[in-house]
C-alpha cells in the first residue's frame, strides 16, 4: 500500500485529532500504514513508524500487586491477599496507586515500559493446589469479577479522557494447573463454561475495567486456548470497544511445538490471528520470526490483508485510548512525578491493604488482642518471622517491615525474643564435612554448618552458617553458598533430602534432577544421575531449631509462630502442590512451641491455604494472610494488638486434606462437587470465613416480597448489632440456593456482601437488592441461560456455612420443556457422563465428546420420544483400528431397553467425521436416554433423530 503524501505540520492528520471519533482516527491511521508497517505492530514489541511519528510500543508491564521487574516500587499484598479484604474500594485504590507508578516508570523509559499492563488475573481459584493460586482472587466467579472490576478501574483510571493504563485479563480460559500446563486439556462442559469460567471475564469487560485479554497456555476441550472461537464469538461480544488479545509468552510456538496442533509456524500464526489473537508474545524483543510467519501466511493465502487490518485495529485502538496520539497538553497524568513511586500515601495504603488482608481463623481464650501493658515478653519464632519474600510478579521491595520488626516497634527489642526455629546441621563424610570456602564454593572441610529450611513437597533450602548465603548449583554443577535464596525464574537453590538411614541422607538437586557427589579430590557437584551415584552424608544436628524455639516460648508471655511458604518454591508458576499440609519441619516447630507455651498464636503467611487441622484443634488463635508486601509487619502488629479489627475473609475454601479434592486436572466442578458451591464435606475453614474481636447478632430478616417475576427484583434487609464492648468490622454475606431444578444446583451461591464497621452496641440496617435475572443458570437442553420457576432460599450469615438468618421466596420464570428431538441433540448437552472427556470437532470451532474407556456413557434426561423417531444419524469419529458401536438405551446404561445400535467405523482421526445411521426400536413418552460407547477413542458430535 502506498502511503499518502505528508500532511502539512499546521494541520495534523486526522488520526492525531482528538476531536474526531475513535473509529475515524483508527481508519485514517490504517490507511496510512503500509502492509509491512502493519505487520510490525502485531508483536509484543511493536516497531516504530518514524515517517508517521509513531513511537515503538510494548505490551505487557506486569502490575499484579505492584509494578514488577522494574526496580523498587510499592509492593502491596499478593492478589489473593487483596481479595481477602472483600473491599472493592480498597482494591480500586491499590489499582490506582499501581497505575500511577506504571505511568512514572513509563515516562522514565517509554520504549521498555508499556502502558498495557498484564493484570488482573481472573481465573477462579478452583483448586488450592494450583501453583499460581496467589495470582487470583477467589474460587467464586462473581466475587472474582467484582474485585477485577475494582482493580481494573484503578489501573485504567476513572477520570474523563485517556486511560491511565490498559488492563489485561489473564488467562483465558479454564487455567488452574501448572502440571503439563501447555499440553493438558481442561474439560469444560457447557454449564461449567457458562456458569463458572466465563462470568469472571465477562464482568470486568462489560464494565470497561479491562480492555485486553490474554489466552492461557492450556488447551480447552482439546483445542489450544489461543485458538478458541470464544475469543471472537463471546469475549468481543461483551464490549463495543476494540478488545486487544495478546498471546502469553511463547504460546505461539507451542502451537507447533509442545502441542503439535499446527503443522508449521505460518499455519499456527494464521490460526491464532483469525481466532482473535492480535499481538504475539514470542522470541522476547525479536519480532522478526513472528513477522516472517505472518508474511508467509499471507503469501500462502492463509491470511488476507483484511485479517491483518482487523488485528492492527485492535492493537492501535488501545494506544489511542491511552492518549498516545493526542497533544501532550491533554495528558491528565503529566503531573505524576518521580516522587509518586513509593510515596507516603502509597506506603500508608500498603499498610492498610495488609491490615485488611489478615484473617483471624480461630480465636479462643481471649488470647487476642494482646495488651501491651501486660505483655512483657513475646517470643516470635519461625522461618518467616523476620523475612519478607517477593513472588515472581511482585515488585522489588523498597524496604521490609517483618513480623519481628512490627513487634519490636511496639514493645522494644528487649521484650522480643526471636529465632527462626530451623535446624542447623552438618553434612559429614569420612574425613570432614561439607563446608563453604571464603569464595563460597562448597568443599570438604573440618567445620561447617547449614540452616535447613523445609518448604514442603520435598523442597529444602540450605543456608551456610559460614557465608550467611544459600547453597545454589551453578551451570557446571558445582555448589556454592553465595546466593540470596530462591529469587529467579529458574530456582537452583532447592534440594530434596532423601533419608537412607536414621541419620544418613543423599541430596538431590530438584531443578537439575541430579544428586550431590563428593569426588575423591573433595570437590562437590550436583552431577550424579541417580541415588546410587550420590554421596551419602551423615546428618549431625548442631542446633535443634524446634527445641530452641520452645525454650524461648517457655519464658515468654505469648509465643507467636510465623510459618508459610516461599513464593518461588513448592507452589509457583510451573509447579503445583501435591498436598495441602504445612511443611513437616514447620509442623514440628508449631507443636514444640505449643507444648512449651499453650499461649501460642500461629501466624501463616502464604500464597495458598494449608491443611492445619492439628493447629486448629490445639491452638487458641490462628491467623493467615497472603504475603503482605512491604508493610506486613506493622499491619500484623496492628491486628495482634487490636489497633485494627481483623477485617479479612477467606476468598476460597480451606480443606482438611488434599483427599477432599478431585483430580487437579478435572475442571468439572459440578460433577466432582468442587468449590464451596458444590462441596458437601466439612471444610476446615469455609469460604467467606473470618472472625472479629467483636461479636455480632443478626436479626429481623425481611424480604420485600415472597414472590418475584423473572425480570423482577427482591430487596433483602436485616439488622446487624455489635453485641460486644469494642468496635468491630463485619462482612455480611448474602447467599441463595435454588431448592428445585431440572439440573444440579449449587448448595449455596454468593450473591452480594456488605462490609460494615460498628461501634460497641451499635446496630445498622443492611439492605441488598437481588435481581431475579441473576439467578439464571445455563440450560444445556436449549443452549442458553434461563431463570426457572422455583423456590429459592435466602441465606444470610458470616460465611457460606455460618448462616444466621434464612427465608424463602418464589421466582416465576420458565419451566424447561422436554428435549425436542426435532432439533439435533448435541453430544455436549448431556446431563451426566461417565469416562467421557470433551474434545474439539475441528481445529477452528465446535465441541464433541470422546470416550476414555469401554463402557463410557452419556445421559440425556427428559428426552421427548412421543414424535416416534425411527432412525438416528450419529456424527462420529473413531481413532480405533476396528469398528466400534454406540448403543442407545433407555433409563439404564447396562440393562435398559435397547433403542438402537450405531456402527462406528474407523475414521483415522478425531477430526474426520462420518454420518452413521441406525434404525430405532419403537419408544414413547419422555424418557432418559443413555449413549453407551463400546470402546475408548470414540468421538460423538451430535445425534439427529428422523421420523419416516
Total DSSP helices: 18
Q: Low-confidence runs (pLDDT<50, min 5 residues)?
A: 1-8
What overall form do the CA principal axes indicate? globular
**Average pLDDT over all residues:** 97
Strand fraction equals 25-35%
Q: By helix and strand content, what is the structural category? A: alpha+beta
By DSSP, the count of extended strands is 48
Give the N-terminus to C-terminus distance in angstroms.
Answer: 59 Å
Give the fraction of residues assigned to helices: 10-25%
* Oligomeric grouping of the chains: single chain
**Gyration radius from CA atoms, angstroms:** 30 Å
What can be said about the biggest beta sheet? 10 strands, antiparallel
Describe the structure.
By secondary structure, the protein is α+β, with helices and mostly antiparallel strands. It is 20% helix and 28% strand. It has 18 helices and 48 strands. The strands form 10 sheets. Strands 13, 14, 15, 16, 17, 20, 21, 22, 23 and 24 form a 10-stranded antiparallel β-sheet that branches. A hairpin with a 4-residue loop joins strand 21 and strand 22.
List keywords for this structure.
948 residues, alpha+beta, ten-stranded antiparallel beta sheet, six-stranded mixed beta sheet, 18 helices
How is this fold's topology laid out?
Blueprint: H1 22-32, H2 35-39, E1 45-46, E2 57-62, H3 79-84, H4 88-108, E3 116-118, H5 141-156, E4 166-172, E5 185-186, H6 190-206, E6 212-215, E7 219-220, E8 223-224, H7 230-233, E9 244-245, H8 251-254, H9 265-275, H10 288-299, H11 305-321, H12 344-356, E10 359-363, E11 378-381, H13 403-411, E12 416-419, E13 423-429, E14 432-436, E15 442-445, E16 450-454, E17 460-464, E18 470-473, E19 479-483, E20 495-499, E21 504-509, E22 514-518, E23 524-528, E24 537-543, H14 545-554, E25 558-564, H15 584-596, E26 600-605, H16 613-618, E27 621-625, H17 632-640, H18 675-678, E28 696-703, E29 707-709, E30 713-722, E31 728-738, E32 749-758, E33 763-771, E34 777-779, E35 784-786, E36 790-797, E37 803-812, E38 825-826, E39 832-834, E40 836-840, E41 847-851, E42 857-864, E43 871-878, E44 884-890, E45 897-904, E46 914-919, E47 926-933, E48 938-946
Parallel strand pairs: 2-3, 3-4, 4-6, 5-7, 6-9, 11-12, 11-25, 25-26, 26-27, 29-37
Antiparallel strand pairs: 1-2, 7-8, 10-27, 13-14, 13-16, 13-24, 14-15, 16-17, 18-19, 20-21, 21-22, 21-24, 22-23, 28-30, 30-33, 31-32, 31-36, 34-35, 36-37, 38-48, 39-42, 40-41, 41-48, 42-47, 43-46, 43-48, 44-45, 44-47
Helix pairs in contact: 1-11, 4-5, 4-12, 5-6, 9-10, 12-17, 13-17, 14-15
Amino acid at each position: 500500500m502506498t502511503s499518502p503524501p505528508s500532511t502539512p505540520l499546521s494541520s495534523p492528520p486526522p488520526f492525531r485529532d482528538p476531536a474526531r471519533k475513535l473509529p475515524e482516527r483508527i481508519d485514517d491511521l490504517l490507511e496510512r500504514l503500509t502492509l509491512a508497517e502493519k505487520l510490525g505492530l502485531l508483536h509484543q514489541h511493536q516497531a516504530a513508524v518514524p515517517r508517521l511519528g509513531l513511537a515503538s510500543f510494548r505490551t505487557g508491564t506486569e502490575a499484579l500487586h505492584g509494578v514488577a521487574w522494574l526496580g523498587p516500587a510499592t509492593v502491596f499484598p499478593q492478589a489473593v491477599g487483596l481479595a481477602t479484604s472483600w473491599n472493592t474500594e480498597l482494591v480500586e485504590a491499590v489499582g490506582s496507586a499501581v497505575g500511577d507508578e506504571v505511568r512514572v516508570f513509563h515516562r522514565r523509559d517509554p520504549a521498555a515500559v508499556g502502558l498495557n499492563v498484564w493484570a488482573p488475573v481472573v481465573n477462579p481459584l478452583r483448586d488450592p493446589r494450583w501453583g499460581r493460586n496467589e495470582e487470583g482472587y477467589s474460587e467464586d466467579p462473581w466475587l472474582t469479577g467484582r474485585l477485577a472490576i475494582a482493580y481494573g478501574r484503578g489501573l485504567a483510571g476513572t477520570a474523563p479522557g485517556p486511560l491511565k493504563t490498559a488492563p489485561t485479563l489473564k488467562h483465558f480460559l479454564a487455567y488452574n494447573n501448572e502440571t503439563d500446563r501447555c499440553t493438558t486439556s481442561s474439560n469444560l462442559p457447557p454449564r461449567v463454561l457458562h456458569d463458572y469460567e466465563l462470568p469472571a471475564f465477562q464482568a470486568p469487560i462489560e464494565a470497561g475495567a479491562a480492555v485486553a485479554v490474554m489466552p492461557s497456555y492450556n488447551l480447552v476441550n482439546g483445542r489450544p486456548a489461543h485458538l478458541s472461537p470464544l475469543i471472537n464469538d463471546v469475549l468481543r461480544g461483551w464490549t463495543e470497544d476494540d478488545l486487544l488479545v495478546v498471546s502469553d509468552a511463547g504460546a505461539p510456538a507451542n502451537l507447533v511445538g509442545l502441542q503439535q496442533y499446527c503443522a508449521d509456524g505460518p499455519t499456527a500464526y494464521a490460526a491464532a490471528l483469525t481466532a482473535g489473537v492480535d499481538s504475539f508474545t514470542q522470541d522476547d524483543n525479536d519480532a522478526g520470526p513472528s513477522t516472517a510467519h505472518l508474511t508467509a501466511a499471507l503469501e500462502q493465502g492463509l491470511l488476507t490483508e483484511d485479517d491483518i487490518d482487523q488485528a492492527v485495529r485492535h492493537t492501535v485502538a488501545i494506544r489511542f485510548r491511552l492518549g498516545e496520539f493526542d497533544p501532550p497538553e491533554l495528558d491528565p497524568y503529566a503531573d505524576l512525578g518521580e516522587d509518586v513511586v513509593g510515596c507516603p500515601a502509597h506506603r500508608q495504603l500498603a499498610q492498610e491493604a495488609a491490615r485488611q488482608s489478615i484473617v483471624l481463623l480461630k480465636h479462643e481464650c481471649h488470647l487476642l488482642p494482646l495488651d501491651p501493658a501486660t505483655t512483657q515478653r513475646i517470643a516470635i519464632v519461625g522461618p518467616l518471622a523476620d523475612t519478607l519474600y517477593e513472588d515472581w510478579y511482585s515488585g522489588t521491595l523498597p524496604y521490609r517491615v517483618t513480623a519481628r520488626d512490627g513487634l519490636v516497634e511496639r514493645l522494644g527489642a528487649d521484650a522480643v525474643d526471636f529465632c527462626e526455629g530451623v535446624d542447623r546441621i552438618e553434612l559429614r563424610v569420612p574425613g570432614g564435612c561439607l563446608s563453604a570456602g571464603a569464595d563460597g564454593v562448597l568443599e570438604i572441610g573440618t567445620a561447617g554448618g547449614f540452616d535447613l529450611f523445609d518448604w514442603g513437597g520435598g523442597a529444602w533450602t540450605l543456608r551456610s552458617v559460614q557465608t550467611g548465603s544459600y547453597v545454589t548449583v551453578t551451570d557446571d554443577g558445582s555448589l556454592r553458598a553465595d546466593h540470596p535464596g530462591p529469587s529467579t525464574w529458574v530456582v537452583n537453590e532447592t534440594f530434596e533430602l532423601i533419608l537412607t538411614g536414621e541419620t544418613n541422607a543423599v541430596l538431590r538437586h530438584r531443578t537439575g534432577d541430579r544428586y550431590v557427589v563428593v569426588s575423591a579430590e573433595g570437590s562437590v557437584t550436583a552431577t550424579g544421575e541417580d541415588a546410587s551415584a550420590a554421596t551419602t552424608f551423615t546428618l549431625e544436628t548442631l542446633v535443634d531449631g524446634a527445641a530452641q524455639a520452645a525454650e524461648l516460648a517457655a519464658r515468654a508471655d505469648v509465643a507467636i509462630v510465623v510459618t508459610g511458604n516461599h513464593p518461588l518454591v513448592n507452589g509457583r508458576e510451573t509447579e503445583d502442590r501435591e498436598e495441602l499440609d504445612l511443611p513437616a519441619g514447620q509442623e514440628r516447630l508449631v507443636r514444640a512451641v505449643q507444648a512449651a507455651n499453650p499461649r501460642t498464636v500461629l501466624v501463616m503467611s502464604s500464597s495458598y491455604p494449608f491443611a492445619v487441622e492439628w493447629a486448629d484443634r490445639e491452638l487458641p488463635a490462628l491467623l493467615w494472610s497472603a504475603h503482605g508486601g512491604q508493610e506486613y509487619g506493622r499491619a500484623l502488629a496492628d491486628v495482634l494488638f487490636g489497633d485494627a479489627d481483623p477485617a479479612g475473609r477467606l476468598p476460597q475454601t480451606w480443606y482438611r486434606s488434599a483427599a477432599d479434592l478431585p483430580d487437579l486436572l478435572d475442571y468439572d466442578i459440578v460433577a466432582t462437587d468442587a468449590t464451596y458451591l458444590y462441596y458437601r464435606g466439612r471444610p476446615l475453614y469455609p469460604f467467606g470465613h473470618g472472625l472479629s474481636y467483636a461479636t455480632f447478632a443478626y436479626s429481623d430478616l425481611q424480604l420485600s416480597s415472597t414472590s418475584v417475576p423473572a425480570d423482577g427484583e427482591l430487596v433483602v434487609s436485616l439488622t446487624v448489632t455489635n453485641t460486644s464492648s469494642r468496635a468491630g468490622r463485619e462482612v455480611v454475606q448474602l447467599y441463595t440456593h435454588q431448592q428445585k431444578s431440572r439440573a444440579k444446583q449449587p448448595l449455596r451461591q454468593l450473591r452480594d456482601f456488605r462490609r460494615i464497621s460498628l461501634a460497641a452496641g451499635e446496630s445498622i440496617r443492611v439492605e441488598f437488592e437481588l435481581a431475579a435475572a441473576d439467578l439464571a443458570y445455563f440450560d444445556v437442553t436449549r443452549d442458553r441461560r434461563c431463570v426457572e420457576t422455583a423456590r429459592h432460599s435466602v441465606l444470610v450469615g458470616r460465611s457460606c456455612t455460618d448462616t444466621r438468618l434464612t427465608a424463602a421466596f418464589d421466582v416465576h420464570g420458565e419451566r424447561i420443556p422436554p428435549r425436542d428431538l426435532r432439533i439435533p441433540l448435541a453430544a455436549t448437552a448431556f446431563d451426566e457422563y461417565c469416562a467421557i472427556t470433551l474434545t474439539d470437532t475441528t481445529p477452528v470451532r465446535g465441541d464433541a465428546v470422546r470416550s476414555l474407556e469401554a463402557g463410557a456413557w452419556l445421559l440425556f434426561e427428559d428426552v421427548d420420544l412421543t414424535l416416534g423417531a425411527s432412525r438416528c444419524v450419529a456424527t462420529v469419529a473413531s481413532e480405533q483400528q476396528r469398528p466400534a458401536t454406540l448403543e442407545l438405551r433407555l433409563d439404564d446404561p447396562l440393562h435398559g431397553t435397547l433403542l438402537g445400535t450405531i456402527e462406528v467405523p474407523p475414521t483415522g482421526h478425531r477430526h474426520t467425521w462420518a454420518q452413521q445411521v441406525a434404525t430405532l426400536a419403537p419408544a414413547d413418552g419422555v424418557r432418559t436416554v443413555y449413549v453407551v460407547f463400546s470402546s475408548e477413542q470414540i468421538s460423538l458430535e451430535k445425534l439427529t433423530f428422523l421420523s419416516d
